[in-house]
TrEMBL record:
Residues 18-74, 75-138 form the HTH myb-type domain. This is R2R3-MYB protein. It is found in: Nucleus. Residues 171-180 have a biased composition (Low complexity). Residues 18-70, 71-134 form the Myb-like domain. The keyword Transport does not apply. Signal peptide: none annotated. It comes from Rehmannia glutinosa (Chinese foxglove). Keywords: DNA-binding, Nucleus. It comes from the Eukaryota. Residues 153-180 are annotated as: Disordered. Pfam families: Myb_DNA-binding. SUPFAM superfamilies: Homeodomain-like (SSF46689).
Length: 212
DNA sequence: AACAACCTCAACCGCATCAGA
DNA sequence: GTCTGATGCGGTTGAGGTTGT
């Protein structure tokens, strides 16, 4: 079974078949059938798509393949510094903060929230990138320092000094204004107006928690 | 050249949430 | 209000690739 990598090279991969459903790597023919079916029925009703495509794949598998690989405008290749910076910022602000509180809503939609703000990137890709590159970088150094901003400096002042503060101060601005009040405002940075209600509620709780 | 260790990333799994009956 | 199937998410796996010795 062949599979195409992001750079166009072919890899071979196979998992043992379970039940009567096809599993493992998608073939070019399966991709073609799936794309064709989605072209007819749209990328929404996955149980119908899975049945109509006659791929012997479950709906979840079809959805995953479309979302992570076949979907138009998927951007592949290395993450830019800006993209990496954004991932780190958002993970720092959303992910780690929620690890340390007791609201009980940990990491809900984190990767998809980040992916939504990185056009062409998938949540799976960002998650993989974090696990492979960034979390390791964090472990190695204790802090990040991407695009001139370390996560120590990204921490709300309240975490650093115990004072009340919800702003983040880049260590050096591009304008070269040493020590200027170039404030990173969480409310400006995150526009969640298009998120579904449950996510919006979660973000609201998060922001309320961070500022209380 | 051969082997081992590590890295990458597509795909699967289990669970939570959503939406419609 | 409840039930049930569909959908979406993060965590994890594991085969193939890459790098180091």
């Amino acid at each position: 079974m062949a599979h195409t990598r992001a750079d166009g090279s072919i890899i071979q991969k196979q998992r043992p078949a379970m039940n009567e459903l096809n599993r493992g790597v998608w073939t070019a023919e399966e991709d073609r059938k799936l794309a064709e079916t989605i072209g007819i029925y749209g990328a929404k009703q996955w149980t119908i798509i899975a049945a109509k495509a006659e791929l012997n794949r479950c709906a979840k598998s079809c959805r995953l393949r479309w979302m992570n690989y076949l979907r138009p405008n998927i951007k592949r290749g290395n993450m830019s510094d800006q993209e990496e910076d954004l991932i780190i910022r958002m993970h720092k602000l959303l992910g780690n903060r929620y690890e340390s509180n007791d609201i009980g809503l940990i990491f809900i939609g984190l990767w998809s929230l980040i992916a939504a703000r990185l056009p062409g990137r998938t949540d799976n890709e960002i998650k993989n990138y974090w696990n492979c590159h960034l979390s390791k970088k964090k472990l190695d150094k204790g802090t990040f320092n991407v695009a001139g901003i370390s996560t120590q400096e990204m921490r709300p002042k309240s975490e650093q000094t115990g004072e009340e503060e919800t702003i983040i101060r880049p260590s050096n601005s591009s304008s070269g204004e040493q020590g200027s009040e170039s404030v990173f405002d969480v409310n400006d940075f995150f526009d969640f107006s298009n998120e579904k209600p449950s996510t919006l509620e979660w973000v609201t709780k998060f922001l309320e928690f961070g500022s209380s």
